[in-house]
Amino acid sequence: MQPYPPTPHLGDAADELLSSGHLWLREYVAGPRLRFQMEPSGRLLFGDRDRVFDDVPPPYESAVRHVRERFDRDAFHDAVDEPGAYVFFGVAPCNVGIDYDWERIPAFLGWTIWSGAKERLLPIDKAEQVFERLGLTPLNTFQKELNVRDFHPERLDIPESAWYAGPAAGVVIENRRGGRALVEDTAVDERRDHEPIRGEPAELADALVTDARVGRAVEAVETSQKSPTTAEVHARVFESIVREEYLRLDNGRVDWEALRSAVGSVVAEKRGKSADY
To answer: Which keywords does UniProt give here (predicted)?
Structure first.
């Protein structure tokens, strides 16, 4: 699978980035980077920056489910000659310090697409259109087609995020001719909540498996036209906990599989009680 394209900080970017052409400024959303590719059979392969997954790690589970449920395989297969020649890149938003509005922000946001036939990334606007046509939300854009002569990095103010009440984690600057760079908001990093969540898995599950999370999971299962079995609800509740509390749990050195099992027990108990009414 094509490697994830690097995005250097602006100070390390090639001079060509700002020498000519037009820029797109897009929101840098915090979270692990995710890529995927469709095999001729229609099966989707997923990976992070460095590896292709055999088993999907916890912080990616929600994003992988989101893509699997929404990606229009038939439309993509009909639109291209070789589906496997394309690799899709994006971000799996999870709480690595910024508490996004988790009920609004999609579990996957598309960034760019590699075309093996052309051996290059698709143009920015083309990639944005492809993501939308295939059922996925692209990264939001702050400004399009800004002439490089009108861009002054020293005057760049980080805009408000589209996904929570606060400034974006940064701005990705992309030139339509190729090349990209990142400007991060250091003030956002200073406000991030890194306080670990510690405790035994059973204690954590009791605190984190709330009625609201169970209710949202049931609604999500029903929306996907599945029966809200305890197993389905359990999987989605665990995914939401990881997504919304990832950094703090990871800093607390949680045993993810033990937590998964404990979450299942609490979900089953809550589902059993609700069935009694």
So the answer is: Plasmid
Residue 80 to residues 26, 73, 83, 90, 158: CA-CA distances in angstroms? 27, 11, 6, 20, 38
Give the list of residues 6+ apart from residue 134 with CB closer than 8 angstroms, or none: 71, 72, 75, 76
CATH assignment of the domain containing 131: 3.30.470.30
Lowest mean pLDDT among 58-67, 138-147, 167-176, 222-231: 222-231
pLDDT digits (tens, 9 = 90+) for 157-175: 999 999 999 999 999 999 9
Give residue-wise pLDDT tens across range 216-236: 999 999 988 888 899 999 999
Q: Domain limits at 245?
A: 201-268
Rounded CA separation 73/79 (Å):
10
Asked if 138 and 110 count as a contact pair (C-beta separation under 8 A), the reply is: yes
Decide if pLDDT at 11 tops 50. yes
From 145, 163, 191, the end of a domain falls on: 191
